[in-house]
Amino acid sequence: VKSQPDSSDSLHSQKPMMYSLLFLAACANAEWAETRFENRFTYKVQLDNLSFRQPLGGIFVMVHRPDSTPLFRFNEKASPELAILAEDGNPQPLVDLFARAKGVKSSFSVAGPVLFGQSTNFTAEIPEGYVLTLATMAINTNDCYVALNGVKVYDGSILDMDGLDAGTEENNELCSFIPGPACPAGGDNLRAEPREGDEGFVHVHRGFHGINEGKVIAKKDLGASGFPLSAVRYDWRNPMARVTIYKM
């Protein structure tokens, strides 16, 4: 006589699968609820260039959770993507990098340049509990940029930004390595090879000192004026830029 299978054994074997399905359903519902009911706010973000003869390039913008990976940390090495923004003025590698990052709500760019004495603005949806990061290059330099690095925003926020040095290129002040309009159009904008003594870490920029004034340098390294770049034209005092935020 064949024994009949014990129904309790069958139910017992199905329990782990049932629990797994219930757990997955709960996670999906929690994620949906978080997205559905979070308080979302749209802000107008205005960026003013406060410097003299230091245009700002394309702008990288990110909305993210406070505990997600930051754009940079002071006294640490800049990422390759930040180096490209700080040396070339190109925000797209950072947009692509952070679009895939955990805790990032949005990652996009805003077109530059923003000339000295001028401003630009854009809108960003920033849910409650999220923070704002943005960065843009001072394009008449080797690797200077300004940034907000994960700041909490509110209606009427006014945030000043100092010039920062990515530490990824020697500040040689030669037009072969500078992409901005201080240099002849169609220049090489070379990437300087790391050397012993280069900074190698993110820090507050020391400014533009005209270190080649009075020297005989290669024609390709001269400014658009036909002379070495000078401190009197391209140096600055902080802050270099200001961000003002309005709730729409």
CA-atom Rg in angstroms: 25 Å
Strand order of the largest sheet: 3-2-5-6-8-9
- Form type: elongated
Strand percentage lies at 25-35%
Query: What is the number of helical segments per DSSP (H or I, 4+ residues)?
Result: 4
* Count of β-strands: 10
**Overall residue-averaged pLDDT value:** 88
**Alpha-beta classification:** alpha+beta
Low-confidence stretches: 26-37
- Gap between N and C termini, in Å? 79 Å
Q: Helix proportion of residues, in percent? A: 10-25%
Q: Secondary-structure element order, as H and E?
A: HEEHHEEEEEEEHE
- Major sheet: size, sense and barrel closure? 6 strands, antiparallel
Entry summary:
With about 250 residues, the protein is of the alpha+beta class. Helices cover about 20% and strands about 25% of the residues. The termini are far apart.
Structural summary, described in words:
This protein has 248 residues and is an alpha+beta fold. The chain has helices spanning 7-37, 80-88, 92-99, 231-234; strands spanning 42-49, 56-64, 104-110, 119-125, 131-138, 144-151, 158-161, 164-165, 203-204, 241-247. The strands form two sheets. Strands 3-2-5-6-8-9 form a six-stranded antiparallel β-sheet, covered by helices on one side. A four-stranded antiparallel β-sheet has the order 4-1-10-7, with no helix packed on it. Helix 2 runs antiparallel to helix 3. 33% of the residues are buried. The model is unreliable at 26-37 (pLDDT under 50).
